[in-house]
Write a structure and sequence with these properties.
This protein has eight helices and 16 strands. It is of the alpha/beta class. Helix content is about 35%, strand content about 25%. The strands form five sheets. An eight-stranded mixed β-sheet has the order 5-8-2-1-11-15-16-14, sandwiched between helices. The chain has a two-stranded antiparallel ribbon with strand order 3-4. Strands 6-7 form a two-stranded antiparallel sheet.
């Protein structure tokens, strides 16, 4: 197996720590390097509330102002430190990247909410080669060093594509992507065409919109298998990472089938 990129949702707030550490250690035993990208939404929201700053969300993306950016960076640095310390405390060697040094950001006309222009893969590969798990905060800097808040799902999908990852696993606090959340209609195995159709039909809302876009981006950029799973469930997490357990009725899986990607 190749590189596995894991995106840890900020909503999990440490509840996935034991499951994640166990899965990362198992990946090491199997010879599959793991790269971790984390979110931080709840901590960012708390810091902004404490500072009296309100920011709107548009299609699931926080519209970050200049005034808010220091609070965003502080919250992400805190998340990065806590995740790195939690993994290290369970015997995982980590390399923390908390200062926007991995993602090259670009301005897309949404104040300090940016997007990914490029990924600096050499530091990540260097950390992996030394036996460490890179832990990456989802913000970046442009060519002039200006920081931009970047959606963590988008960052993870770009990082996975740039690294040539074989799998990208999104850990969240729900069992996967739903065709209809209210009806409990969970997508198990899906395709880029199906997800694109549901997206255009308005089936998704709030934070699921950038997540689905990130899944599609990864599939279109060489990541063979993309999962969205409940990160608190060790068994389903290992199923998503290694594909060795019997398929459970949990988690959404997309297997990309396109030129250059084998089924």
């Amino acid at each position: 197996m190749g590189v596995i990129v894991i995106k840890l949702g900020g909503s999990l707030e440490g509840s996935a720590g034991a499951a994640l550490a166990g899965a990362v250690q198992e990946a090491g035993r199997r010879g599959s390097p793991v790269v971790l990208v984390h979110g931080g939404g709840p901590r960012i929201s708390k810091r902004l509330r404490d500072a009296g700053i309100e920011l709107p969300f548009v299609n699931g993306l926080r519209q970050t102002s200049e005034e808010a950016m220091p609070h965003v960076m502080a919250a992400l640095a805190e998340c990065n430190r806590d995740i790195a310390e939690a993994l290290a405390g369970r015997g995982v060697d980590v390399a923390a990247f908390a200062d926007g040094e991995i993602v090259v950001a670009k301005d897309v006309g949404r104040l300090r909410t940016g997007d990914v222009a490029a990924v600096r893969v050499d530091p990540v590969r260097g950390a992996v080669a030394s036996g460490c798990v890179p832990v990456i905060a989802p913000f970046g800097r442009d060519a002039a060093g200006r920081p931009y808040n970047i959606n963590a799902d988008h960052a993870a999908s770009h990082i996975a594509g740039a690294l040539g990852a074989t799998r990208l696993v999104f850990l969240t606090d729900v069992p996967g992507i739903y065709r209809d959340f209210e009806a409990g209609d969970l997508l198990l195995d899906t395709t880029p065409d199906e997800l694109e159709h549901l997206l255009q039909a308005g089936a998704f809302s709030t934070g699921m919109i950038p997540k689905v876009n990130a899944v599609l981006h990864a599939a279109q950029h060489g990541v063979r298998e993309v999962w969205v799973v409940d990160g608190r469930d060790l068994e389903v997490l290992q199923m998503a990472m290694f594909g060795t357990s019997e398929r459970r009725a949990a988690g959404t899986r997309l297997v990309a089938i396109k030129e250059g990607v084998t089924a």
